[in-house]
Amino acid sequence: MSIMLLILLQLVLVSCAPPRCHPGFPGLCKPTVEEKPKCTDVLLSYCDDMPYTQTMFPNILGHKTREDAEAGTEYLLLSVAESLLGGACSPEIRMLGCSVLAPRCEKEKVLKPCRTACEAVQKKCSHAFEAIEMAWPYFLDCDRFFVGEQEGCFDPLEGLSAAQDVDAFSSMEALPAEDPVSTIQFPYHSNAQMISTLKKTEEQCSDIARTYSIGRSMEGKELLVIEFSNNPGQHELLEPEVKYVGNMHGNEVVGRQLLIYLAQYLCSEYQLGNERIQTLINTTRIHILPSMNPDGYEVAVSGVQDNSYGDDEESQGHRYDTWNVGRNNAQNIDLNRNFPDLTSVVYNRRRQKGYRTDHIPIPDSYWFGKVAPETYAVMKWIRSIPFVLSANFHGGDLVVAYPYDLSKHPLGHNMLSLTPDHQVFKFLARTYADTHETMSNENARCGSSHTHSEKGTINGAQWSSFAGSMQDFSYLHTNCFEVTVELGCEKFPPQEELLNSWYENHEALITFMEAAHRGIKGIVKDEEGNGIKGARISVRGIRHDITTAENGDYWRLLTPGTHIVTASALGYTRAVKKVFLPPRMHTAGRVDFVLQKAAVEPDMQEESDAILSLGSYDHFDPYNQYGHYILTADVSQNREERAEKPWWWSYFVQPGGPAPTWLLKHH
Ligand SMILES: *[C@@H]1O[C@H](CO)[C@@H](O)[C@H](O)[C@H]1NC(C)=O
């Protein structure tokens, strides 16, 4: 009884008097009057490089203790931000987050971080989050948790700014400067870094650049194209369109990097007033797909990493084995064998009188085989834009290969297998090889092409025959002339060699695009002056017609000399012109045609062939086999699941905890 009283008494005493600790009565140590929060040391290990040492709990997000803050998804995100974002925006994102989770404390008062600092980081870094399809984290909301100068804010990046000034140029990859090339960095880009670099370039050059997606890889990665034009997003009458495609084989990576640099180079040179680049972009629509096989690239990167331990015999052998790791897509399909084999169709037609080698429809049977999503996306893309010229960048040799890739001899036999446009292809291949630093030099050759190559160019079939290549498909199915550029013997060279590759190729990359302006171009119109879509431009002696685009405009690459050119369209009379192209002409000759209406004669054999073939030409996956296949394919089910939630999602879901849906973009 007396003990009870004593305790009660003490309790009363404690609640009135200032708290005093009594080792004998631990329960009495706690003050009943709420203590004013005090500054305490920043003990969060991911925040130990902040420019201050004291913080206070509860923090700005309401975490009452350090343990609370550490257990939250916010802190987890900060701890992995660097690797999630592929190194982008590090350490800015982490430090910005720390300024909210463990804000500065001075004289027992919490200071909030400055809004201006937050806004600058958000502007610079939102692309990095977009690239991994993550929403901008709610706790980095500049309006909610950050304040203006007048409220006495602190700059969370204070310690960084000095260091940053030094490398501001190298981190702003495409920032114009005296020598823009020196400001472009040449490291390998992860898929996320590639996407964010392309988007940054688009932002920096928003009046001449635009990014767009042509679809997704098997594992759901975006196939992102960057386009350059003085009018991005639109086809302009008479303006030729060119494209560059890289990394079709995931382990052939130099082209991918060169195309990322090329995009930055085009942007910064245009802004600096480089007249040649301005003229090119003002007169040409350029599309660049740096990676057609981002899934394979990831596999190749891990293969190279596995490989980089020691140089003994064993690892040499290992290296040899991994020569092709990452080449194929996630379904193990070689994309450069996966296009419809129209070359065989043409070889089968050879004995027919007046057979043609253009606009060959895709055989229905093709759709019953395995069609990779990457192939499908590229086919749709190249059918939707009137491309004139294209190059596809590979590695493993140093040569430009031109069509056909499939030998006319069924057993291969290194047989020269030429297209009707051999003169043009030879010219195009030479254009690249001759302007490349070393390619046309016999001493520089490497790889297996050398027995048949000629000054850095080779006929694909004569080198090594195979069916289903992209360049054969482009030539036989569309108006586009495409070559395959092999950029060097090493498919995945050390990073230090990339700068040199850029120097070796950058002149060739520009000169080749300019070649889209060779030959003739013009408009085919009816008598009322309306452009005729789908009219045929035929050149005497070349069994390969070009067709006109939406508004009747066409481009016909030709070598210098005299050409007899015919324009024809169903329901019109044909028109013929004789054209002379002088040897040193570097712009397309303008040749327009006006066609008169005519009754369709039943015996116009050629035209009705044309209708027939054009009829089925419009068929693209007519039975929706691809759609069916992709839904039933095992891998794609993974993809579907993953498409619902991004790949990083499971990392943040803690058992029993609330799902951090604020990380999701479309929540
Ligand atoms: C390209 O077009 C832009 C915008 O119309 C113009 O300012 C620039 O002078 C042009 N450059 C060249 C070299 O034609």
TrEMBL record:
GO cellular component: extracellular space
Signal sequence annotation: 1-16
Active-site residues (renumbered): E486
Domain FZ: 34-156
Main location: secreted
Stretches that traverse the bilayer: none
Cellular localization per UniProt: Secreted
InterPro entries tied to this protein: CarboxyPept-like_regulatory (IPR008969), CARBOXYPEPT_ZN_1 (IPR057246), CARBOXYPEPT_ZN_2 (IPR057247), Frizzled_dom (IPR020067), Frizzled_dom_sf (IPR036790), Peptidase_M14 (IPR000834), Peptidase_M14_domain (IPR050753)
Cofactor: Zn(2+)
Disulfide bonds: C118-C142
Any one Pfam family match given in the protein's UniProt record, by short name: CarboxypepD_reg
GO biological process, one term: protein processing
Family the entry assigns: Belongs to the peptidase M14 family.
This protein's name: Uncharacterized protein
Origin species: Monopterus albus (Swamp eel)
